[in-house]
Amino acid sequence: MSKHILMVVTSNDRLGDHGGATGTWLEELAGAYYTFIDAGHTVSIASTRGGSAPLDPGSLQEPWLTETGRRFQHDARATAALRDTLPIEGLKASTFDAIYLVGGAGTAWDFPASTPLTRLIEALDRSGRVVAAVCHGVLGLTTARCNHDKPLVAGRAVTGVSNAEERAIGYDKIVPLLPEERMNQLGAQYSCAAEPFQSHVVRDGNLLTGQNPASAAPLAVEVLRALA
Q1: Which in 32, 162, 192, 217 has the greatest CB count within 10 A?
Q2: Three-class DSSP labels, 72-101
Q3: How far, in Å, are 80, 93, 100, 123, 206 from residue 127 at the CA level?
Q4: What is the pLDDT of residue 159?
Q5: What is the CATH number of domain 4-227?
């Protein structure tokens, strides 16, 4: 039976006061997108503001541009959806079977600041639907709360881009929030791969998280298992 999956991407194209360009990391979007589409499911793409959503320029260059990324770039339907994303505000949780928060450093600014995104995540979680996030996208989970008014991630097994990975690419001095640090502050049970940039996926009930770009497609596979 076909499911309806909402993929959420950032609307933010700047690295705060540092001024560099950012956006969604293409592989994190494309890897999951085609895992869902090729399995016969329906995918909608939304962003915090709606409309055209930026891609991180770094993800469009070698060696980061993968075959899946190239497929997305040449897919008229997929690129049109990214140019005309749905605004999060007004979306109803009952419309979707799962939400997948796509990463990219831009999410560190607009995901935690989006009240409509927080409310949508809370509604999906409380109805038992699948809530998934990868890399910096996990920061969208950090403002959500569960039925008992404690942080959604408190006491739950999670992952997300690690402090070591942030330091390796110099983002530890740029992004306003470090996912590993913030998850630990909220009482989550954070874990990561033994080596930076290796795939690592964690499932805790209906909450599924992936560590980095290499984890995007494997996380999407786990989402499909959860939906089944």
Answers
A1: 32
A2: HHCCHHHHHHHHCEEECCCCCHHHCCEEEE
A3: 31, 9, 16, 6, 10
A4: 98
A5: 3.40.50.880
